[in-house]
Design a protein that fits this description.
binds adenosine-5'-triphosphate; ATP binding; Rossmann fold; six-stranded parallel β-sheet; alpha/beta; about 35% helix; about 25% strand
């Protein structure tokens, strides 16, 4: 379980996030939506332990973000908006490189299976020759190497076609429902959010997204 209590973040005196509280259980896929600049990436990077909140508490199971940062990092897979891949290396070489940096040992078959599960079958191809959707899949596969329990995905399907979006969505659904991962997922595509997420956290002043989601019957928490 991930528990966020009264979280706030300001840059200098500008309040970006104000008093957010929510709980995510194992197996939940939670959408995080809001207008540009609402603070979605800021919230994800706080949950990824990369930024400190101005106020509030966060717990992953019984571990506090204030006291157990190292242990918590092992449990988290974070995929930022920007791709972080070695373009000249093949898919295989990228997977092996990131496995070497991770806390767990995964053999080549296991690494390859992670890619196959995501329908990324270009194992021997250099990354620069892959489509945008395939690169996004590879970024996601890399974030799963250390078998995290909490996945934080910042617009993982931005700019990719419907087929790849659907494949990524199906895979995330399997990760949550069969492997009991917790997933927080940002997107500006409300249809995708509606189909994939169990509930949605809406942040920011604009009520546009909240209204669309409520109309579709999706449970919404808004801040
Ligand atoms: N290091 C920083 N210093 C000052 N302001 C920042 C910093 N990082 C982000 N901000 C500001 O915080 C606000 C929220 O940014 P953030 O990137 O979290 O929004 P977002 O909801 O993810 O937006 P988008 O949908 O465009 O990705 C923006 O106004 C941004 O300019």
């Amino acid at each position: 379980m991930l528990k966020v209590e009264s979280l706030a973040k300001s840059y200098r005196n500008k309040v970006i996030i104000d008093d957010i509280s929510f709980t995510i259980n194992k197996g939940d896929i939670v959408g995080l939506v809001g207008e540009n600049g609402a603070g979605k990436s800021t919230l994800l990077s706080i949950l990824a332990t990369l930024k400190k909140p101005t106020k509030g508490n966060i717990f992953l199971e019984d571990k506090s973000f204030d006291h157990s940062k190292k242990a918590i990092r092992r449990e988290i897979g974070y995929v930022p908006q920007d791709l972080a891949l070695w373009e000249e290396f093949t898919v295989e070489e990228n997977m092996i490189f990131f496995e070497q940096l991770s806390w767990v040992n995964r053999n080549k078959d296991e690494l390859r299976q992670l890619c196959v599960d995501m329908k990324l079958e270009k194992w021997k191809e250099p990354v620069h020759s892959l489509s945008g959707g395939m690169k996004r899949k590879l970024n996601l596969a890399i974030s799963l190497i250390h078998q995290p329990n909490l996945l934080l995905l910042d617009e993982p399907t931005v700019g990719i076609d419907l087929k790849s979006k659907t494949e990524i969505g199906n895979y995330l659904h399997t990760l949550a429902k069969k492997q009991q991962k917790m997933i927080i997922y940002t997107s500006h595509d409300m249809e995708e959010i509606r189909q994939l997420c169990d509930y949605v956290i809406v942040i920011g002043k604009d009520t546009f997204y909240k209204e669309i989601l409520l109309k579709s019957g999706k449970p919404v928490l808004s801040f």
